[in-house]
Amino acid sequence: MSAAIVAERLTRTFGAHRGVDDVSFTVREGEIFGFLGPNGAGKSTTIRLLLGLMRPDSGSITSLGFDPIGDDVALHRQVGYLPGELAWFANLSGGVILERFARARGLTDSTYRDELVARFEAELDRPVGQLSKGNRQKLGIVAAFMHRPRLLVLDEPTSGLDPLLQDSFARLMHESADAGATIFLSSHELDEVQRVVGRLAIIREGRIVVTDTIEGLRRRAPRRITLQFDRPTDPSAFATLDGVAVEHADDHEIALSVTGAMAPVLQCAAHHDVVDLTAPPTDLDSLFLSYYRDDDDGD
After folding, report:
1. Strand order of the sheet with strand 253-258?
2. Structural domains of the chain in order of their starting residue, each with its CATH number
């Protein structure tokens, strides 16, 4: 499968302020790729670089095989972009805005646009300045998807949407990817990311700290096990095992966080009078947030 986006050692600074530093990643055609990080980590800067809205200080990036700076017009014809903050003329109606987008893109067949309007119950008649955040977001989704672009760049796309519309939007992303579109998704909604992306990268302080599949991250995540005993048990036997940390212990219960092999834990437990064992599903949220900590706010 060929690459839709290739970033190689991408660097952009803003004087003394952090931008992105030596960022490299590849997004394959037809995949939904998640791009996560705390505020100020470099997500918005990366998006501007891949769209050609700013130049890198060093490194390179190609989007759909185009140089985003030199081939920006050709690239933008094939991109649907939903920014984190929509800025439209407040006195224009949603219908007028979508019509102007359609004319700018040379879109003459409104069938798919009308399907999206109905699907998301987008408000077309009122001025956008009178609409709620969620209703403005619906218009942004229609504008981004209605021309069936090859590349969709989505920055916090479900902000303001209710849970039912979030599910509808997740289905729309899968339908678009199945039809061959590539989706670059930047989101703080960890549940949404887990449900829709195939691979993701996490950026922190301007650097990529991990790139992996959801399943790969799940294997990295600590497994939490709670053991219950019918008599007081010393937790030190578990604390000495490689990759095992004792999170809680009392006379009859020990809670463990396990990042190493599971077999030694079970073998150790077998030598004690265990009456119950619970192991909840892997907590990916905790793993994600472990990459976020100690980062400054502001983007």
Report:
1. 244-249, 253-258, 223-229, 274-278
2. 3-78+149-218 (3.40.50.300), 222-281 (3.30.70.1560)
Q: Report the 10 Å Cβ neighbour count for 60.
A: 14
Contact 276, 233 (CB under 8 A): no
- For CA atoms 208, 197, 183, 169, the dihedral sign is negative
Starting from the edge strand earliest in sequence, which strands make up the sheet with 3-14, in order?
A: 17-28, 3-14, 58-63
User: Which CB contacts under 8 angstroms, 24+ apart, belong to 71-76?
Assistant: 75/51, 76/51, 76/52
Could you identify the residue written with the tokens 């800025």?
87
- What does the DSSP assignment read for 147-208? T--SEEEEESTTTT--HHHHHHHHHHHHHHHHTT-EEEEE-S-HHHHHHH-SEEEEEETTEE
Rounded-to-integer distance, Cα 42 and Cα 81, Å: 18
CA-CA distance, 209 to 203, in Å (whole number)? 6
**Whether the Cβ atoms of residue 37 and residue 203 lie closer than 8 Å to each other:** yes
Contact between residue 23 and residue 7 where contact means Cβ atoms under 8 Å apart: yes
Crossing angle for the helix pair 163-178 and 111-120, to the nearest 10 degrees? 150
> pLDDT tens-digit profile of 104-139?
999 999 999 999 999 999 999 999 999 999 999 999
For residue 103, give every residue at least 6 positions away whose Cβ sits within 8 Å of its Cβ, in sequence order, or none. none
Give the whole-angstrom CA distance, residue 158 versus residue 191: 12
Neighbours of 92 (CB within 10 A): 14
Spatial distance between the Cα atoms of 51 and 178, rounded to a whole number of angstroms: 23
Query: Tens digits of per-residue pLDDT, 244-290?
Result: 999 999 989 999 999 888 899 999 998 888 999 998 877 677 777 77
Residue 193 structure tokens: 């990311």
